[in-house]
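In response to the reviewer comment on reproducibility (Comment 2.3), we provide here a single inverse folding case reported in full, input and output, so that an independent group could reproduce the run without further information from us. The structure tokens appear first.
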């Protein structure tokens, strides 16, 4: 069966891998010259079962409105984006009930755990380096109330498969000694020992090479998809800047660009780009910094060690499809990191730090779209929001099951277009 994957971010690349393993003849169409050059290039790097909650949560719409115009707000809505996002915004507000929030978190957790269960076999087969570390993640809290609320929510998720430890300040420092100087400010932490991290871009490129060299996948780079062609209840081809391509089945792994290409086919997905920023610096000037990824749930940043670099991430900005990193947003992240870890300043040189921005393909429900559509040979694997690296192998393996006509490896309720909330 000739199967065409549209897009080669982390999602399209892992989709190609699992399809090839299932025996498909796989072609991948990608506008960039290599895999994972857009959102999957410089992300936060963590596969975190401990961060699966959707952003659509009770109280969020009011908070976002109160942050309008505040350059250093954790989530910044630019007014110019409103005309292109009102429909998504209404969907997002509808999903902010406690019931929907919890349901979406449970769906993501199921899928994140599926990814973690698949990673060892992928690594054993492919054997390329990608700065992998398997030492969990530690979310830290300075406010007692926020800590207690999050521990209660995590306790509830324990029944749904979350493995975690609620820890006091002393144990936070035991897990990550770099926290010692701020021990007295910590109300506590949530440690997820099974979480792992690594460079998503390196992983995608390694997997792309493995797919090309060992599994016979053909990557068509520098190829822009202009239109997906539907005839009756089937897709008959894809028009690109290099001519038409056709196959038996098509998988849309087009992230924030999926809605525009799917809408003319009568397939509606509620995804909008949420820009985020990372800042990457060499770790040489601060060798004793954290080795366990730290997620500061009060100041809303992540700090991880990727090989011999530190990467800090954070910031959400709704500003359409613009990928320019905002200097003020990057500086706000750095300031937050330095306020907790003053020694980070030793590594940070504004002129040489690598500042990057990417567009999280944010689904209004908090869950990605995975699997079949009403168009018989069109399948979805898009809208992974802030969790694309965490969910990639799980959702791609499921898509390969569905396209191959196999019983999916895990329950797909909440992921398919038909069951999406
Ligand atoms: C600041 C930041 C931090 C993050 N941190 C984490 C984290 O720690 N852990 C985690 O799990 N996730 C994280 N994420 C989210 C994660 O990066 C995304 O969910 C993931 O990269 C999405 O992958 P994708 O393949 O769907 O999208 P992409 O990587 O954007 O891939 C889509 C591909 O489709 C191609 N494409 C689009 N339109 C066309 C067209 N018309 N023709 C041809 N090709 C096309 C694009 O070129 C692109 O390569 C973070 C994101 C950001 C921005």
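Designed residues, in position order:
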């Amino acid at each position: 069966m000739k199967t065409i994957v549209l897009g080669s971010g982390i999602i399209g690349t892992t989709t190609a891998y699992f399809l090839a393993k299932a025996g498909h003849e796989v072609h991948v169409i990608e506008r960039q010259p290599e895999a994972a050059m857009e959102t999957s290039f410089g992300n936060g790097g963590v596969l975190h079962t401990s961060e699966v909650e959707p952003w659509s949560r009770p109280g969020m719409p009011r908070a976002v409105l109160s942050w309008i115009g505040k350059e250093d707000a954790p989530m910044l809505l630019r007014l110019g984006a409103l005309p292109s996002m009102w429909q998504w915004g209404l969907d997002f507000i509808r999903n902010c009930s406690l019931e929907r929030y919890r349901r979406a978190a449970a769906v993501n957790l199921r899928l994140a755990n599926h990814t973690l269960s698949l990673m060892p076999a992928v690594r054993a087969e492919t054997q390329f380096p990608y700065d992998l570390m398997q030492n969990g993640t530690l979310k830290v809290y300075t406010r007692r109330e926020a800590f207690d609320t999050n521990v209660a929510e995590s306790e509830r998720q324990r029944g749904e498969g979350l493995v975690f430890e609620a820890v006091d300040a002393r144990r936070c420092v035991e897990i990550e000694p770099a926290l010692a100087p701020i021990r007295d400010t910590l109300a506590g932490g949530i440690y997820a020992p099974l979480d792992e991290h690594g460079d998503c871009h390196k992983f995608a490129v390694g997997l792309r090479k493995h797919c090309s060299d060992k599994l016979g996948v053909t990557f068509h780079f520098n190829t822009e998809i202009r239109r997906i062609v539907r005839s009756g209840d089937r897709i008959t081809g894809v028009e690109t800047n290099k001519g038409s391509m056709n196959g038996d089945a098509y998988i849309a792994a087009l992230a924030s660009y999926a809605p525009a290409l799917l809408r003319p086919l009568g397939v509606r997905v509620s995804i909008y780009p949420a820009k985020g920023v990372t800042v990457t610096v060499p770790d040489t000037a601060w060798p004793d910094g954290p080795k366990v990824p730290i997620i500061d749930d009060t100041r809303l940043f992540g700090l991880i060690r990727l090989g011999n670099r530190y990467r800090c991430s954070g910031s959400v900005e709704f500003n359409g499809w613009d990928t320019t990193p905002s200097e003020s947003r990057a500086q706000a992240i750095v300031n937050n990191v330095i306020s907790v870890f003053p020694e980070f300043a030793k590594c940070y040189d504004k002129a040489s730090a690598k500042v990057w921005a990417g567009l999280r393909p944010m689904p209004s429900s908090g869950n990605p779209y995975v699997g079949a559509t009403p168009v018989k040979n069109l399948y979805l694997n898009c809208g992974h929001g802030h969790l694309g690296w965490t969910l990639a192998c799980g959702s791609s393996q499921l898509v390969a099951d569905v396209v191959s006509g196999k019983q999916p490896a895990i329950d797909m309720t909440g992921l398919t277009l038909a069951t999406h909330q």
